[in-house]
Amino acid sequence: MATSKPLSRFWEWGRNIVCVGRNYAEHAKEMGSALPAEPLFFLKPSSAYVREGSPIVRPYYCRNLHHEVELGVVIGKRARAVPQDAAMEHVAGYALCLDMTARDTQEECKKKGLPWTLAKGFGSSCPVSDFVPKEKIPDPHKLQIWLKVNGKLRQEGDTSSMIFSIPYLISYISQIFTLEEGDLILTGSPKGVGSVEANDEIEAGIRDVLSMKFKVAQ
Ligand SMILES: CC(=O)CC(=O)C(=O)O
Ligand SMILES: [Mg+2]
User: Has residue 2 been placed in a domain?
Assistant: First the structure.
């Protein structure tokens, strides 16, 4: 599909948001989950995007809204069954993302064996930073990502601790479905996920690269 929108505004492209789960051992542990033998992933709709200046809105059915800070990988070139050693050629850049999660809903879904869409795919569940071209990040597996709520540090993780690397994820996902230009892959959350309330301020960043702030709406 042709588009006149620049890739630096990938959130306007209406493309897939692919989220990887349990990609950091300490986060899997804090959730009481086993380590995955292969990547676990799920999708958010493109209407989940929210940008700085607009609030994160808790869905009406959620009583326990959680933050998860994650490195996002923006696809720059169609990827269909790409081998790992060619996977990085398909990356245009990066963004910092929040995988906002209705944790109570997710727990209910897990118990009932239901998909996580209600827990993960609501409107404003994917706050996203500015686009960072890949030339500005020589090694995406050497980044420190962090998140504060009302000025207090909650999450701090190093992307070197990912269980499945970015080339592995691109290769793996692209064997299941084609990744298109403008698609975003959220690479999983480090430990320290926790609740936010109305009027809280979430600040998150990639050390030495960027930071972003979001308010949680009433
Ligand atoms: C337990 C989860 O919600 C999985 C997830 O999203 C993650 O980042 O890990
Ligand atoms: Mg997540």
Answer: no
ipTM reported for the complex, 2 dp: 0.98
Domain membership flag for residue 6: no
The verdict on residue 4 lying in a domain is no
The strands making up 210-215's β-sheet, listed across from edge to edge, are 152-158, 144-149, 201-206, 210-215
pTM of the model: 0.97
The neighbourhood of ligand 2, an ion, using CB within 5 A, equals 68, 99, 189
How far apart (Å, rounded) are the C-alpha atoms in residues 167 and 171?
6
Task: Report how many domains make up the chain.
Answer: 1
Q: Read off the pLDDT of residues 46-98 as tens digits, 9 standing for 90 and up.
A: 999 999 999 999 999 999 999 999 999 999 999 999 999 999 999 999 999 99
Distance 2 CA to ligand 2 centre (A): 30
**Mean pLDDT, range 125-134, rounded to an integer:** 98
Q: Is the CB of 116 under 6 A from ligand 1?
A: no
By residue range, what is the domain housing residue 143?
13-215
Which residue's alpha carbon is nearest to atom 5 within ligand 1? 21
Has residue 120 been placed in a domain? yes
**How many degrees, rounded to 5, is the angle at CA 85 between CA 79 and CA 91?**
45
CATH number at residue 84: 3.90.850.10
